[in-house]
C-alpha cells in the first residue's frame, strides 16, 4: 500500500479561548452559586441587613440552601456507599512510592504523559506497548508486548511479577481507531480494534488481577470514551469497542464486590470526549464559537490530572470529561427528532470525513511520509 501523501489540516485550538468554556463556568458555579458553604451566607447577609426571617428573600434563599445541601449530601453519601466509606474518617493517604502501575499503551499520547507524570511521583511504572517509551525517568520499565494477544500478555506478566513485583494499579489505556465506514472496514481493521481496545483489557485483568485479589486492594482504571455511550457514523467499530469497556467496567465492579469479596479494589471508568492526541489529530470538528464553548476539546494533561486525582482519592468512580459528556447517556432518551438534531449540531457524523489513521498503523497499511508528519506536527 502506498504511503499517505496528504492530510487535512488538523483542528487547532485558539489559545486565547482554550480555557473559556462551559467547564470553566461549571467549576466557578460549583464553588459559588452551587456551593452550600457559599449559599449559606446569602440569607445570613440579608438578615444582617435588617431583613426579617419571614421575608421572601430570606425564605427563598434558605430553601435554595437546603436544596443545594441535599443535592451534595446525596452525591456524597452515594460515593461513601459505593466505596464503603466512613461519615467521619477519610481513607488513608495513598503512598505513591509503594505503588507498581501496569500501564498499557504507555508509549504515546495520554499513556506516555501519564507514565512520566506518575514516575515523577516516585511510582514504579511498567509500560506495555509494541513501541518503546521515550523517557528519562529511571522508574519506568518498558516491556515490548502486543496486549491484544493473550500469549504475549501471559508471558510478559510472569516477567513483570518476577522482575518488578506484584502490581497494585492497572491502567488499561491502549487504544486504536480506524475511522472507516462499516463496509470499508477490513477483517484486519475489526480484529485490531477489538483486540487492542477490548481483548487487551481482558488479558491484562486475567494476568494481573490475581495479584490485586491476593492483596484485596488496588485500583483498576479503564479508558473508555464518550463514544462508548452513543454511536456516530464512521466510528462503528470504535464505538462498539468502547461500549464493551463500559459494560466490562460495570461487571468487574460487581464481581469484585459480590463474588471475589474485594470491595477495596477500586475501579475507575474514564469517558473523555475529544482529546488532542496524535490518534485523533486529523478529526474535523465544528469551528463555530458556541460549539467550542459547549463541547471543548481536552488537552491530555487534563485527562491525566483527573486520573491521578481519582487514584489519590482511592474511590471507585466514573470520570465524564468534559462537562457535556454527563448528558450524552440521556440524549438517546429524547424524542427522535431532538436526538437527530443534537447529532447534527454536534457534527459527529462528519467528523471523520477527512480522517487519516496516523497512530497504530499496521504493516499492511503502509506508513506516513516523514515530510507529511513534519508538516502536520505528527
UniProtKB/TrEMBL annotation:
Which segments cross the bilayer? 28-48, 57-74
What are its GO cellular component terms?
Answer: membrane
Which InterPro entries has this protein been placed in?
NAD(P)-bd_dom_sf, Sc_DH/Rdtase_CS, SDR_fam
Pfam family, any one = adh_short
Q: Which GO terms describe its molecular function?
A: all-trans-retinol dehydrogenase (NADP+) activity
Domain of life, per the record? Eukaryota
Q: Where in the cell is it found?
A: Membrane
In the UniProt record, does the keyword Oxidoreductase occur?
yes
| Predominant place of localization | membrane
Q: What does this protein do?
A: Catalyzes the reduction of all-trans-retinal to all-trans-retinol in the presence of NADPH.
What is this protein's record name?
Answer: Short-chain dehydrogenase/reductase 3
Gene source species: Panaeolus cyanescens
